[in-house]
Design brief:
Keywords: Amino-acid transport, ATP-binding, Nucleotide-binding, Transport. By secondary structure, this protein is of the alpha/beta class. It has six helices and ten strands. Strands 6-7-8-3-9-10 form a six-stranded mixed sheet, sandwiched between helices. Strands 2-1-4-5 form a four-stranded antiparallel sheet, with helices on one face. β4 and β5 form a beta hairpin. The protein starts with a strand and ends in a 6-residue tail after the last strand. 38% of the residues are buried.
Length: 219
């Protein structure tokens, strides 16, 4: 599904990613664990085309994603939940969710209905402005927006950070339910607190370098 091979990336001349390689098979959930500043968000943004590679490749379904314009990600079925949510404050919840469909010219609302069925609480405040929601509720809306676009691959950058325990648990339930949908998912976290039970494999990132972590249940 997604393969990153020997990718390096610098920002203003400062190396951030150093020869990183990572693979996500179709229908699997992969964790990316690292401290703040380790390079997790940079990797997500590189996959989304927001940051160009210095070298290496990013392949998605045998397509050179690193050469594909950023706005084509939604057309490819790639959804992204950024760490800071990036909602439009004055838009309604539903309008925020539908942004990716507007971008692709897709008028089919079946995916929106699926998201509402998956997260009924979103439908209950669909008409409210995003700015009136709590931080945890905004995370749910950002996840819903990612799900509308991400019919093939989801990139979830620190989805549990800054969220109350009850809402973090709800987010984890939704992400766990996605395994039945055969979606491929990459989740970044600073530690293993929430995602350990749902990931199929885990990569650790430290100072821009990645290693595959052994699973505790692999003995």
């Amino acid at each position: 599904m997604l393969t990153i091979d020997n990718a390096s990336l610098s920002i203003q001349g400062i190396p951030i990613l150093r020869d990183v390689s990572l693979a996500i098979e179709t229908g699997t959930t992969v964790g990316l664990i690292g401290r703040n500043g380790a390079g997790k968000t940079t990797m997500m943004r590189a996959v989304m085309g927001a940051l160009p590679l210095d070298k290496g490749t990013i392949q998605f379904e045998h397509q050179a994603l690193h050469k594909t314009p950023p706005h084509h990600r939604a057309e490819l079925g790639i959804g992204y939940l950024p760490e800071d949510r990036r909602l439009v404050p004055h838009f309604s919840v539903e309008d925020n969710i539908l942004v990716s469909l507007w971008a692709t010219g897709n008028a089919d609302r079946a995916r929106l209905k699926w998201v509402y069925d998956l997260m009924p609480e979103i439908g209950r405040f669909a008409d409210r402005r995003a700015m009136t929601l709590s931080g945890g509720q905004q995370k749910l809306v950002a996840l819903a927006r990612a799900l509308v676009a991400g019919s093939n691959l989801l990139l979830l950058d620190e989805p549990f950070e800054g969220v109350a325990p009850a809402l973090a648990q709800r987010l984890m339930e939704v992400i766990s339910d996605l395994r039945r949908e055969h979606l491929s998912v990459l989740i970044s976290e600073s530690d293993y607190t929430h995602s350990e039970k749902v990931v199929d494999k885990v990569y650790a990132i430290e100072r821009g370098q990645i290693s595959l972590m052994p699973r505790a249940d692999a003995a």
